User: What shape does this take?
Amino acid sequence: MQATGRLRGFLPGMTASTSSNRSSDRLLYWLLLPVFVVSILPIMRLGFEGVMVGGVPSLGYFQDVLGNSTTWQATANSLYTAGLGTVISLLIGGSFAFLVALTDVRAKAALVFCFMIPMMIPPQITALSWVQLTGPSSALLNAFGIAPAMGAPQPLYSAEGIALLLGIQHASIVFLTLRANLRMLPREQIEAARLAGARGGRLWWQIILPLTSPGLIAGTAMAFVTALGNFGITAMLGIPANYATLPTLIYQKLAGFGPSVLGEVSVLAMLIGAIAICGVALHHRLVSKRDYRLMGMVGRPLDISLGARRPLVEAILWAVLVAILVVPLLALIATSLVPAFGVKLNFDNYSFEAFREVLFVQPSTMRAFQNSFMLSVGASLTLILVCLPLAYVMVRRPSRLTKLINLMVEVPYALPGVVLAIACILLFIRIPLLDVSLYGTLGIIFIAYLARFLVIALRPVMNSFSQLDPALEEAAQACGAGLGRRLRDILLPLVAPAAAAGALLVFLTAFNELTVSALLWSAGNETLGVLIFNLDDSGDTVLASAVAVLVVLVVIALMTGFQLASRRLPKGVVPWQT
Amino acid sequence: MADINLSRISKCFGDYRAVNQVSLDIADGEFVALLGPSGCGKTTLLRLLAGFEAPDDGVISLGGQVVADPQSNIMVTPEMRNLGIVFQSYALWPHMSVARNVGYPLEVRGLGRAERDCKIKAALDTVALGPYADRSPSELSGGQRQRVALARCLVMEPRAVLLDEPLANLDVHLRETMQQAFLDFHRRTGATMIYVTHDQAEAMAMADRIAVMDKGHIRQMAAPETLYREPADLMVAGFVGAGAVLPISNVSIHDDRTCSVRLGDADVAARICPNLVRKSNTAQLGQAGICLRPEDVWVDDAGALRGSVEDCVYLGGRFRLSVRIGRDQSLPVYANRRARIGEQVGLKVSDGWVFDRMQDEAA
Ligand SMILES: Nc1ncnc2c1ncn2[C@@H]1O[C@H](COP(=O)(O)OP(=O)(O)O)[C@@H](O)[C@H]1O
Ligand SMILES: [Mg+2]
Assistant: This one.
């Protein structure tokens, strides 16, 4: 090595490259513009509709909507079903997370995998399968001769029925957030508590529960907001029971077109948005008060021994899985196999006619599979490309603007899909300047998906960026690497697992999506969610079940594929494994 | 020519002045240590130099070229400064092999494969890590990671190497080995080095000059022996080396370097800070203090300065006593025999350093 300290005052075009570096920084900020256009502008456009009556600013719609008792009835119903559903999610998802993460139950990987499936199944299919399981014409119950009598009311067509299914559907959300939190729980803190004499219930109530409360609160908030905006379950169970929630009220308002529809819907959307934001704000308040940063060795899993009770606990866990996953799926399959809806299924009369019909006779099924596949792959790829630099700006170059964007990207996800759909219609029905309309194309669904799922892709990447030691980037900077190079060589490889996990979640969520596309689809542009909903709505329950079975099979096949590949993928790519 | 110049640099975080009016001149090829208690602004100063933070005020120049000057809106980015930096956390990239980590600066500069491999090999050999080129950083020990970080910074032949508490995470034994490695490297390459540490022994062992920092200020910058023998103020006297500072009131000045001081019943010949001599012409000497190092004080029953033993610790080969001489003044003293607690002893003082105790209030 020769002398290195000598002045090599050589810095070619230093001033020039300094300024170009600044401008590449500024370039990053331009990224905020499309994010703004896609995810925030539509919401603002819809809000505008609510405060303009006949072209003049007015609070007329507010008076109409807020003065109407059905609004408040629907609000109360929404709060009741979402609240009760969240409690159920918390009970199921919470106990699963605690037992799987902290105790020595066996076959954890299989338990986690099966527990994730309900989240990946579209809510309307969940609803469909449960209705078919429990109703008088239940193919499964009829096969055993234990179905309720014909004409008896379907027990799920009720507030509690809706809450139960919401609870089951979103239990995995609580499970995922809580499990992430529990994995950070250093075993020393539990061991210290045990040395201090804490045992059994005391250990759970005084140490483990408080330490994991941030995860519990976050999971609860997310389950609540998601339940509040749920359309699939509340529509399939609520509409037959004449039980309106805010999302179904909006849907029904839209069905009966009229001059004041958009304004009223806008006000209802603001109402539901306000409730969602209250939920999120409450969550932030609660979490900010408890800064339980966990210290100590992380990564050694805790194995509280259940002793003699282990077989019992395992039996209960698997029984719950059978109840929430296997039985409804069996019911769905049974329905798809009956020759006609309501006919008793037995070993002589089952038929694959419905599958033949949807796969080979009706062109819409294959089309819907294609559309949903393209949309979800496209959305996850696009979002990940946007989210990498976006997350970088938000984490490493925080400003008032990025903080605002950080809050606003939550809104399209928290609002019910129908509301987002209307907002997109309003904004993109005629794009100013370009004078083209996206309405009636796959394009508008695509944009709505980008808006809705941005936050799903963004959060894991942001978390990953904020956990990276800033020195890793600074070291590259000191080596002379400019922003682009640093992003490519250092940051991207390091956050790639989180980005892949985000992309996978977006894909699986978008593949099943119904609520957004329910309003945005047009002939030839159906998604899978829309197809199932329409088939069921028009009485072709057997066909709807057949499509639903196919969707579930595809989702499980995809998940299994990722699961099998997970050993070759970098750690953290498969979301249910991290 | 001085290589690195900082002129009245300030940096605030909110209302807090992490770095306050710091001026430093570091010569080309010099090994300078930045020493100070934790939280005094050492890292911030280093980051200002590297370009990761922009100063609020002041001018930084490297080799005569201004790289940061908020007044004229100049701020050269870190990637254009050609300074090597070794972080406390090493900041190795986990997804790259050791060789690629080391070779990354060359990759950025667009060097060809062959030339790159050659330089990587040379750099790895310098830090004795040649056989580890294809390992992943996670398979290395702490000391090895430290050396990879150093090699990565050497390979780009930087104008200066900045090190932020590079040995803080290593065990004592490894620390000595690494200190030697840094010194060897400095002697061989002649690179300018700025070494941040809170460990005074480390700073004294390695640096040509030490800048002592406290609360964002540089208190004194001098060679280690000067810092030890002639601390400029109370903070430096207390932070660097063992010893005690006693307030004194009775000073008779002989010339502008020496004086004698009345300590108890004893007259002690001491050196005096020229600043204080100058001040004594205009003001009183009421705020003077004397810094006594334990090796300049010994137990002697004939000593006129008397005190009682408060504490006695065996250091291996000798004892360190703490002797109380006034109401609330005590001195560390080396002795070669054990002393009883409470025992009355006489002390002889051979040397001391007299300076203005209130110096730091003025700074
Ligand atoms: N990015 C920052 N934001 C706010 N305060 C900071 C920041 N960096 C450092 N500080 C504060 O500046 C002071 C000096 O910090 P630092 O330079 O890291 O000290 P040292 O390296 O000497 O321990 C500390 O009080 C620290 O809290
Ligand atoms: Mg520091």
In short: The first helix of chain A runs from residue 14 to 30. Residues 181 and 215 of chain A are 5 Å apart (CA to CA). The two ends of chain A are 45 Å apart (CA to CA).
